[in-house]
Amino acid sequence: MEKEKFIPLNFEYLSEDEMLKRGRSFYSTMDKRRSVREFSDKDVPKELIENIVMTASSAPSGAHKQPWVFCAVSNPELKKQMRIAAEEEEFKSYNGRMSEEWLRDLEPFATDHNKPFIDIAPWIIVIFKKPYELINGEKQKNYYVNESVGIAVGFLLSAIHNAGLVALTHTPSPMNFLEKLLKRKENEKAFLLIPVGYPAENVSVPLLERKGMDKVLEIYE
After folding, report:
1. Is position 17 within any domain?
2. Is 15 part of a structural domain of the chain?
3. Segments in the chain below pLDDT 70
4. What is the rounded (10 degree) CA torsion for 68, 125, 112, 161?
5. Which domain range does residue 112 map to?
6. CB-based burial of residue 11 (10 Å sphere; 0-12 exposed, 13-18 middle, 19+ buried)?
7. How far apart, in Å, are the Cα atoms of 45 and each of 19, 50, 121, 144, 213?
8. Is the Cβ–Cβ distance between 213 and 201 less than 8 Å?
9. Per-residue pLDDT tens for 167-215?
């Protein structure tokens, strides 16, 4: 196997003051990000979605296999079919699959099996993970697939928020209906469904308090 070619790193050294300034600014921006369940049907340009997805695809991955595919759906009929199938699975989850503890934990968010955001939001991005590649009929293994795709989704959510849009991470499990509706290849498994767009007018979100630094950070000096 030919050794990967290396090129010089394009790296910009910043002053400590500038790094701290950027760090505070980015944290302030991302701390305003919220999951939204009520969307406007206002159009979002395809080019913006393309830029967001390519930002996500710049994420690191195991052995640089990039084991992901992002399917961006704006077709109204296809979104309608996705909503119907998702609500069927969600109804089963809310009426038997979920434990009583899980349902209690969801009560503050006022959610149920109805998912109108799927056909209201102008775009639905479905992320598929690829446990292996199919090359000339041969299976080639990918590595750290869940970790790699999870990192890419983090990039995706950051890019969506940075672009001035809102999103929701949705997992209507099991999600194999997405593989069928979108006619995906056998090596692609649905990972997340994310509606993307503008928030509905006068939308509200739950009053939440994020864990403080003392709860999420341990420093060893």
Report:
1. no
2. no
3. 1-3
4. 100
5. 34-198
6. exposed
7. 33, 9, 13, 33, 37
8. no
9. 999 999 899 999 999 999 999 999 999 999 999 999 999 999 999 999 9
Contact 127, 152 (CB under 8 A): yes
Reported for 44-52, long-range contacts at CB under 8 A and 24+ positions apart, including other chains, are 44/122, 44/123, 44/165, 44/196, 44/197, 44/198, 46/72, 46/74, 48/163, 48/165, 49/123, 49/125, 49/196, 51/159, 51/163, 52/156, 52/159, 52/160, 52/163, 52/165, 52/196
Query: Token pair of 23, please?
Result: 């760090």
Print the SS3 string covering 40-88: CCCCCCHHHHHHHHHHHCCCCCECCCCCEEEEEECCHHHHHHHHHHHHH
Q: Full-prediction pTM beyond 0.90?
A: yes
Is 82 a member of any domain? yes
CATH number for the domain including 140? 3.40.109.10
Is residue 1 one of the residues assigned to a domain? Answer: no
Distance CA 20, CA 120 (A): 40
Question: How many structural domains are present in the chain?
Answer: 1
38 and 121 Cβ atoms separated by less than 8 Å:
no
